[in-house]
Specification:
Layout lengths: L3 H8 L4 H8 L5 E4 L6 H14 L6 E5 L4 H9 L3 E4 L5 H5 L6 E4 L11 H18 L4 E7 L6 E2 L15 H21 L3 E6 L2 E2 L5 H10 L3 E3 L4 E2 L2 E2 H10 L9 E5 L5 E2 H12 L4 E3 L5 E2 L5 H7 L6 H13 L19
Parallel strand pairs: 1-2, 1-4, 2-3, 4-5, 5-7, 7-12, 8-11, 9-14
Antiparallel strand pairs: 6-15, 10-13
Helix pairs in contact: 2-3, 3-9, 6-7, 8-10, 8-12
Length: about 350
């Protein structure tokens, strides 16, 4: 892939499993917070699956949509875009009904010094959404940041691992989960808490950050020496298919790739491909933020895009100077300050 258009097309190819599953999802799909990194490609994937299945089902998205060109692009793809501030309660209550909600709204970067907004987005808004859509199925995007660090020679945190969030961002994410859980029980709303670590496409993500550091001969911090990743297209597909697995009380599900990846090993792989020697600083510690996503792999199969494929695509993207979103993951962060 050499262009964003080719990348976007690849991200939105529905599998036969998704086409089959989306046919079993009754009603329209509304994505709340669709304007972020993953929302547009998720919406396009859902719409293509709906069309391939021959269904009369709307795919809608609500967001501030500061990028007007994005609205035009999504509208051309057959997705209904609703410009709204979700924290405006009267506007939230006027959003269209939908039997299926994919909740992607939240705040992470810029939390430090703006903690009040992060808590409003991540822990207050979920209560309002839960009341507005109490009769819907809701897939809630969450994060593995709610977990404690686990041993790098283990399997990562499982869904039954007791949360131990580090820093206010991660604490607010646990708050989001707890509020949704409360209303799932109170209103018997079927939900799924979608704990994701770390999605990527070629414009952002752990692989791009490591590859760019090697390419530009910048020091790479090994303090967080291991990570999980998953291709954004697979993460989006899993999220849509999760609408068939919502429960009350809310089901918890880890989503990431099957590998625990050594950051040093990854940098050395890129070094060989770029014919450049990686520069490291600090030593890898014996714990990291890691998820065991084996349950999601049992439900949906292993990700369709392998780690080797992601590495190959990233190498070529960096070499041609492909477009970037300039949204770093900060996966190296160990103190929870975002």
């Amino acid at each position: 892939m050499k262009t964003v258009e080719e990348l976007e097309a690849f991200l939105s190819i529905p599998s036969e499993a998704l086409i089959k599953d989306i046919a079993n999802i009754k009603g329209d799909i509304l994505i709340l917070g669709m304007g972020g990194k993953m929302g547009p490609s998720l919406a396009k994937l859902a719409k293509r699956a709906v069309d391939r299945a021959g269904l009369d089902k709307k795919v809608m998205g609500a967001s501030r949509f500061s990028n007007k060109e994005l609205v035009k692009e999504l509208t051309r793809s057959g997705i209904e875009c609703i410009r709204v501030d979700l924290l405006d309660d009267s506007a939230l209550m006027k959003l269209p009904d939908a039997e299926n909600i994919i909740y992607m709204a939240g705040n992470k970067f810029g939390t430090f010094g703006n903690e009040h907004f992060t808590w409003a987005m991540n822990a207050y808004l979920p209560g309002r959404v839960s009341e507005r859509y109490k009769k819907s199925r809701i897939v809630v995007f969450s994060t593995g940041n709610i977990y404690p660090f686990t041993a790098v020679d283990g399997t990562g945190a499982r869904e039954d691992c007791r949360p131990s969030p580090i820093g206010e961002y991660a604490q607010s994410c646990l708050g989001r989960e707890r509020v949704f859980e409360h209303f799932s029980i109170k209103n018997n709303t079927k939900m799924l808490l979608y704990r994701l670590n770390y999605a990527l496409d070629l414009r952002y993500g752990v692989l791009l950050e490591v590859a760019k550091a090697v390419w530009e001969q910048r020091p790479l911090d090994l303090s967080m020496g291991y990570a999980n990743v998953i291709w954004q297209g697979d993460a989006n597909e899993y999220a849509i298919r999760c609408l068939n697995h919502c429960e009350s009380p809310a089901k918890k599900l880890n989503v990431t790739g099957p590998e625990i990846i050594s950051v040093q090993w990854l940098a050395e792989v890129f070094g060989k491909r770029f014919k450049r020697t990686p520069i490291f600083e600090n030593k890898a510690q014996d714990t990291a933020l890691l998820n065991d996503a084996s349950e999601s792999h049992t439900l949906f199969g292993k990700p369709s895009v392998s780690l080797a494929q992601m590495i190959d695509m990233t190498v070529e993207w960096v070499k041609i100077g492909g477009e970037e979103l300039s949204k770093p993951t900060h996966f190296q962060e160990r103190k929870g300050t975002y």
